[in-house]
Amino acid sequence: MSSPSTPKLARNTSVTVVLTSTAKDQWSEFDLGFQSIALTSQSGKAVNLLSLRASVSPWGAEFVHINGTAEPLLAASLSHSHDVYTSATINLGGGEMVCVALVLWMGNRP
After folding, report:
1. pTM of the predicted model, to two decimals?
2. Block mean pLDDT (10 aa), the chain, length 110
């Protein structure tokens, strides 16, 4: 039995960040604003996929509409970052959730 070989690193690597959701079904909206997304390699080097200045509005994403499925948030090409990436760091610039409730009143309102 042969041992697994180390994969050869490609010259350009495409990275897609994918969102998915299993949000509570009572929420009608769940938004997050991404300020930065970075990958960290096994050698400790960080590569930014998204980096916005604090004065720029965060890159927004709404999650409830993708409940049970997935969709891409962003795609990036790493052209000079040949390495194996083992972790990701995400900084959020805000968030919001909305829950709409209907209340039926019987008789007079309190």
Report:
1. 0.74
2. 64 85 82 93 90 86 89 85 87 89 69
Amino acid at 101: A
3-state DSSP assignment of residue 26: coil
Amino acid sitting at position 34: F
Q: Is 33 helix (H, G, I), strand (E, B) or coil?
A: strand
> Which tokens sit at 9?
């690193």
Q: Which residues contact 25 (CB under 8 A, 6 or more apart)?
A: 67
CA distance 110 to 105: 9
Please check whether residue 61 is in contact with residue 72, taking contact to mean a CB–CB distance below 8 angstroms.
no
Query: Degrees (nearest 5) of the Cα angle 28, 34, 35?
Result: 150
CA–CA gap between residue 93 and residue 37 (Å, rounded): 11
**8, containing H or E segment:** none
